[in-house]
Specification:
Shape: elongated
Strand content: under 5%
Radius of gyration: 36 Å
Number of helices: 22
Number of strands: 5
Oligomer: single chain
Largest sheet: 3 strands, antiparallel
Strand order of the largest sheet: 2-1-3
């Protein structure tokens, strides 16, 4: 992948008076040349590969061996891009091949040169004729080739006798030099490498920009709303001129008068853009989650709330409900968890992400209990009215739903209330493997999350297992008070694959013994009559094949 700089000189009409004034001047003023960059997918890997090929063909120390190596590389380029390989590169290869055969003393060198020269012109004229039909002389003129090249091409392709070898030799040298100055040298001087991983399509860049702008306005307005700045006049006193101007322009275009109206309109626009691109854009989810995690105030606000947490929850409720309606609530939760595990992020960012992750876990537990209670009621009374848990994403709840909320054991004023995706109901549990993966990057930021996920494990953990692992988390969190950042919960002699439930319980037992405490039932898992088979690694065994038969 490479970026080419295409020079484009500006053309402006000049009045006769200005033209006369410029003619009087002794030293003409050179107009600056505008340089435009364009991204091109090239058959060569990078500029180094291109420059090595150039040196092999045209360098001062170029010889037959170097030119053959350059031709081999051009063949690879042709295989990589097929008919998209640049015509000038292919035209160069046919002329160089003819010159190499000439040095070897080919008896049919005249025919070889004539064929190579004809192919050279055909390659180059294809650049122009792909856009419009014109005569060969007009094509040559547009390319910058002399008219005698066209006459010589006619003789090689249709003449009764081929031109003399000396004429073909000198013309081939002339055309190769023209190719060097017309194509190879400009590319060598202007190309630069491009990281393909950072390359995005224009529609993705526009989508990312639009989502980022909306979430920036949401983040700024959320701060104003939570701090009591409801009208634009109050917002102008709280925010800088640049930040206030962004809010003012958006509110003016939407005719919004209060901060709450602005927040609602931003979420409506956000939902509309996501819905529009959800079926066509492959990387939509990654872009969306990345933009959400860039909201600075949103991530840090949970650390500043003391007695007014109900105001924060009420102000952010609609954002989480939108994510639930879109079906991205679990993705957002996983993104927050990974943010807390990232050692390169700041402490404030990791603590803020941990706060929101814990709030979401409390909601998952609430939904888990509500669905379990509803199932128990349904087993007792089959005539019970059906309940749509996606209705939790609105402010209007049925009598049954309100009853389930009351008996869920949470304070609704400080709990995020959101429900299922209307198109796909979900049981809020997490694979045990996902929970165990949180063990290695354990820290003061991720410890509460790991402990909170234990009741949501699938398959479920027994009460003894939950108590054991919860105690282990508490021990590690107590140790975190002694150091700013904890070491991973691992022994150097044990690989990451060994972080299973049995190992954690043994680690818990060792910790308990070192403190002089005793805990019962911590040496082995509570598996009843079953035991864990440890002699074979089943994870590396193919499906349907026993380990000992491999």
């Amino acid at each position: 992948m490479a970026v080419e700089k295409k020079q484009k000189s500006p053309t402006k009409k000049k009045s006769p008076e200005k033209a006369k004034q410029q003619n009087v001047k002794t030293s003409p003023v050179t107009t600056p040349v505008a340089v435009k960059q364009r991204t091109v997918v090239t058959p060569w890997r990078d500029t180094v590969e291109f420059n090595e090929t150039y040196d092999g063909l045209f360098g001062k120390g170029s010889n037959s061996t170097g030119r053959r190596q350059a031709l081999s590389r051009i063949r690879i380029w042709s295989l990589r891009r097929a008919n998209l390989c640049p015509a000038a590169v292919l035209a160069t290869s046919v002329l160089v091949q003819a010159q190499l055969k000439d040095k070897q003393g080919n008896a049919k060198i005249q025919t070889t040169y004539a064929s190579a020269f004809t192919r050279f012109y055909n390659f180059m004229s294809s650049i122009i004729q792909g856009h419009n039909m014109s005569s060969m002389y007009e094509t040559a003129k547009e390319l910058g080739l002399q008219s005698f090249i066209v006459d010589l091409r006619h003789l090689c392709a249709h003449g009764q006798e081929l031109p003399p070898v000396e004429v073909l030799r000198s013309t081939s040298k002339h055309c190769l030099e023209w190719l060097r100055t017309y194509y190879w040298l400009p590319h060598k001087e202007t190309m630069s490498n491009l990281d393909a991983g950072k390359l995005q399509r224009k529609d993705k860049l526009k989508f990312k920009k639009d989502i980022s702008n909306l979430l920036e306005i949401y983040d700024l307005t959320l701060e104003c709303h939570l701090k009591g700045a409801d009208k634009l006049k109050a917002i102008s006193k709280l925010k800088s001129s640049a930040e206030f101007n962004k809010i003012r322009v958006y509110s003016s275009s939407k005719k919004a008068k209060t901060s709450k109206e602005i927040l609602d309109l931003v979420l409506n626009d956000l939902n509309a853009k996501i819905k529009k691109e959800s079926s066509s854009m492959k990387d939509l989810l990654d872009i969306y989650m990345g933009c959400l995690l860039k909201m600075k105030y949103f991530l840090s606000i949970g650390l500043e709330i003391n007695d007014d947490e109900d105001v924060l929850i009420a102000g952010t409720q609609d954002l989480f409900r939108l994510l639930a309606m879109q079906g991205y609530i679990e993705n957002f939760f996983v993104a927050l968890v990974r943010l807390t595990e990232n050692p390169n992020e700041t402490d404030i960012t990791r603590l803020g992400a941990s706060y929101w992750a814990m709030k979401m876990i409390k909601t998952f537990l609430m939904l888990f209990r509500m669905k379990r209670m509803y199932k128990e009621e349904l087993d007792l009374d089959t005539k019970l009215k059906p309940v749509d848990f996606s209705s939790l994403n609105t402010n209007v709840h049925s009598k049954t739903m309100r009853s389930l909320l009351v008996h869920s054991g949470v304070d609704s004023s400080v709990t995020l209330i959101f429900g299922d995706n209307p198109k796909k109901a979900k049981t809020w549990v997490f694979d045990r493997e996902f929970i165990m993966q949180r063990v290695v990057p354990f820290s003061k930021y991720t410890g509460p999350i790991l402990k909170g996920l234990l009741p949501l494990a699938d398959p479920p953990l027994s009460q003894i297992q939950q108590a054991t692992l919860a105690k282990l988390c508490d021990i590690r969190l107590q140790e975190s008070k002694k150091s700013e950042e904890l070491e991973p919960m691992e022994d150097n002699s044990i690989s990451m694959e060994s972080y299973n439930l049995d190992y954690l319980e043994k680690l818990m037992s060792a910790q308990a013994l070192s403190k002089g405490s005793t805990f019962s039932n911590v040496e082995t898992s509570d598996l009843g009559i079953w035991t864990i088979e440890k002699d074979n690694d089943w994870s590396k065994c193919a499906l349907g094949v026993l380990p000992w038969s491999q």
